[in-house]
Amino acid sequence: MNIIEIESLTHDYGNNKGIFDISMSVKESEIFGFLGPNGAGKTTTIRHLMGFIKPNSGKCRINGFDCFHERCKIQEFVGYIPGEINFFDDMTGVEYLNFMEKYRKIKNGSLKKSLLEMFELDPKGKIKKMSKGMKQKVGIVSAFMHDPQVLILDEPTSGLDPIMQKRFIELIQKEKSKGKTIFISSHIFEEVEKTCDRISIIKDGKLAATDSTEELRNRHVKKYTVTLENEKTAEDFARDFSGIQKGNTVEVTTRQSLEEIFLQYYGGGKNDK
């Protein structure tokens, strides 16, 4: 069953900026990764999913609800972390989280408490005085504390240190085990490889590839031919590295990392800011 459906979604800002004929779907209980550099169209796509932007053409739905016309309904059961978090700066973290609790009519604060403990967050201070990492933690707690069935996460670990990034990965994996559907954009390849079932790569506002993490890596391999001193050495080398021996040479095939695959699509790292 598809929870998130995007069909021929287009929003043209002019000068080749925007998203063009984007189509993808995310299944129930799936973690779906969305990769691309700054300016590629990730945030524009996510803002359409949240109903913040009306598409020029095409449509997107979550749980069958139209993301633009029924955005109020969607926002009731979706947890959202924006790419750039903006809070009410005059509030403390506590005041903001309490405000969101009332807005979402959360009766039980136990999940909020456990999230605060997980991310070692004391939200008493003024938000405007918080570091980027602290603000990101407040955003994570706010997005998860109402136990949403769908999560839309735009660069969710931005500003977090490696320990907190690891805890976030653990949280995502736990949510998946509970049947949650998660759509996540990220620049952190290790994060995506550890969590995502499938991935789409977006380039210049258009999808360049969509597949499972495993299949993407299976399709992108490197082959090396290694010449050894003699056949006995080659035999040992082939056994140790799962290679194919031919006399005193061994052919070894390795799968590329997700980062290497990504850079192939971008020709070595073109960044369309």
UniProtKB/TrEMBL annotation:
Protein name (record): ABC transporter ATP-binding protein
Entry-linked PROSITE patterns: ABC_TRANSPORTER_1, ABC_TRANSPORTER_2
Pfam families assigned to the protein according to its UniProt record, in alphabetical order: ABC_tran
Presence of keyword Zinc: no
Domain of life of the source: Bacteria
GO molecular-function terms, A-Z: ATP binding; ATP hydrolysis activity
Keyword Disulfide bond: no
Domain ABC transporter: 4-229
Gene3D superfamilies: P-loop containing nucleotide triphosphate hydrolases
SUPFAM superfamilies: P-loop containing nucleoside triphosphate hydrolases
Keywords: ATP-binding, Nucleotide-binding, Transport
